[in-house]
Structures are given as structure tokens and as C-alpha cells.
Amino acid sequence: MADQPRRPRTLNDARSEAEAAFKRATTKVADAVPKTVAVPGVREQVTLRIDQDVLEYFQEGGPGWQDRINAALRKAAGK
Fold first, then answer.
1. Mean of the pLDDT values across residues 43-58?
2. What Pfam families does the record point to (predicted)?
């Protein structure tokens, strides 16, 4: 292969190479999606599976059991 003469470039080859080089130089890399910051006081609905006895423990105190679970989770998270 080294013995074969290089074929001359045609206009289409040069144009294609130039367009490819331009595209590489001007193509933007997609920005990373910014992480959302938790806003204090805003709650998000989730589905959580917990043991029945744990649920009963928090529900024994009556209304507000979800707030009590949230407070316990905050304490466990060190917040």
C-alpha cells in the first residue's frame, strides 16, 4: 500500500473534509443537567414501603404521623 501513489483530492473530497472539520470544531457538547436543589418546606410525594409495626408505631399518635416519620428521617439524616 505504501507503494501506491496517493490519488489526487477532488473538490468533493476537500469539501467533505472541510465540512467535517468545521462540524467537529463547532459542535457543542451537551451541558450536564444541573442537579436540583431541595427547597426547604417543599414536599414531594413518594411511595415508601416500611414494616407494618413501624407504621403502626407512628400512627399510634394520631394525625400527623407522616410529619413524625419525616422528623425521624431528618434526624437520622443528620439534618
1. 92
2. BrnA_antitoxin
